[in-house]
Amino acid sequence: MGKPYRMEIEFMRAFAIVAVILIHATGLVFSQLPAEVSSYPVYFFLNIFSSFAVPVFIFISGFSFYYTYQDTEMTGAAAKLFYKKRLTAIAWPYSIFAVLYFVILCRDYTFPKTLITFAYQFLTGRTYTPLYFIFVIVQFYLIFPLLIRLLKTKAFSRYLWVTGLLLKAGYFLINKFYIAHLSFLPNLFHRTGSIFVSYIAYFCIGGYVALHYERILAAGKRLSRKFVLFALWLAAGSILVWLYYVGQVRHHWLDSAVYESVQVLFSLLSAFELLLLSRLVLNRTELMAKLLTSLGVCSLGIYYVHPLVLLLYRKIPLPESMIGYHLYYFFQFGCALAVSWGLTGLIAGKVRGGAKLIGVSDRRKKAPLASTTGLHAPVGGSQVG
Questions:
Q1: Residue 110 half-sphere exposure, CB side, CA atoms within 13 Å?
Q2: Quick check: helix, strand or coil at residue 5?
Q3: Whether 357 contacts 96, CB under 8 Å
Q4: What distance in Å separates the CA atoms of residue 268 and residue 262, rounded to the nearest whole number?
Q5: Does residue 359 carry a pLDDT above 90?
Q6: Percent of the chain whose pLDDT exceeds 70
Q7: Mean pLDDT of all residues in the chain?
Q8: Nearest-5° angle of CA 132, CA 136, CA 138?
Q9: Beta bridge partner(s), residue 377
């Protein structure tokens, strides 16, 4: 029998997918709006402050994997079953949307060039920019059985979080001083955002939290510690926004190690802050819990669908007035979230086999929301995290 599912992790998915859409909905502002406009810093803040989204999803993945499989003896047969379950779950929706976005965006249908281009982009998550994340997740799938085997070593289990930070720091330095200068390497090796080691710290720390969850929750119960965490999170995010703002607007850029360090700190603080916020929601209204559960369960489908909604929405011309401009972006975000959420739920609930095709698990059927406290459901499924 599987372990009870931590519903607060579903809520974290909900918060993270909203941040993903906020990033993508505000991404074009900087090429359209002059920095001198008074509202520019607001859009800039929303975009950069939401940059915790992907790291938090990776954190969730690490938590979910270790929480589920920490007691599993990862034999050859168990690893084969793991690969079959995970890769099959992600293969259908990824294939459908990879083909869809390639067909929509492709401007050169010369054979066999187009087929070669598609094959490369399909295998590396590049048919459309947001799909790179699925490529990263598949890399974690491939190495996870090894990580579980290493978990049997006491030192690895105890210092899993340190291991993740050291691996990330090591890769950053090796890339900065060596790999980045190897021009003969394929472009894939220079896209650090598509390489799993860039996110290994979030994955390992998420796993460490899963292994020591009750103790970590107990340590965070004191109100003073919650306040300190919130203050540090807000400060780190504000510093990150300021660093990029000074670079973007005043063209005063610092060493890349500064941005990387602050980004890692802010992303990790975001994961813990969202975890505490999600725990808080468990004790609030059932309506809020249901909405967040639905949003979290549909997160992978929303991730796939929302870029299509944005592509269609951007066919609408930008208004000339400033008020119209702000309303345009407000409704762009709202439409991307609401339409992609609604379509995902509709396909998963009304189309035969739709849940599998859109990437929605059947956890809601296995464990319906029973109360606003102690909301648990079986582990499983193929959400973004």
A1: 2
A2: strand
A3: yes
A4: 10
A5: no
A6: 93
A7: 89
A8: 115
A9: 5
**Angle, helices 132-150/53-69, rounded to nearest 10 degrees:** 30
Distance CA 294, CA 299 (A): 8
Sign of torsion, CA 296 301 304 308? Answer: negative
Give the model's pLDDT for residue 219: 86
Mean pLDDT of 167-194: 92
- State the average pLDDT over residues 50-62: 97
Helix (H/G/I), strand (E/B), else coil: 6:
strand
Mean pLDDT of 289-316: 94
Cβ atoms of 19 and 52 closer than 8 Å: yes
Q: What is the pLDDT of residue 2?
A: 57
Side chain identity, residue 177: F
Token couple for 255 = 């060493």
Q: What is the rounded distance in angstroms from the CA atom of residue 86 to the CA atom of residue 315?
A: 36
Q: How far apart are CA 361 and CA 355, in angstroms?
A: 6
Tokens 């598509």 belong to 194
- Given a cut of 50, whether residue 381 has pLDDT beyond it is no
Q: Give yes or no for a contact between 30 and 316, defined as CB atoms under 8 angstroms apart.
A: no
Helix axes 286-297, 7-26, angle to 10 degrees: 70
Tens-digit pLDDT profile for residues 217-229 = 888 888 888 999 9
Quick one: tokens of 264?
């890692």
Question: Which residue is associated with the tokens 């975009």?
Answer: 47
Contact 361, 13 (CB under 8 A): no
- Alpha-carbon separation of residue 14 from 9, 87, 108, 274 (angstroms): 9, 23, 37, 10
CB 250 within 8 A of CB 312: no
Q: What are phi and psi of 341, to 5 degrees?
A: -65, -45
- Tokens representing 9? 């992790």
Instruction: Find out whether 325 and 319 touch, Cβ atoms under 8 Å.
Output: yes
Distances (CA, A) of 328 to 129, 267, 293, 319, 320: 23, 29, 28, 7, 10
Q: Where does the chain show beta strands of DSSP type E? A: 4-6, 376-378
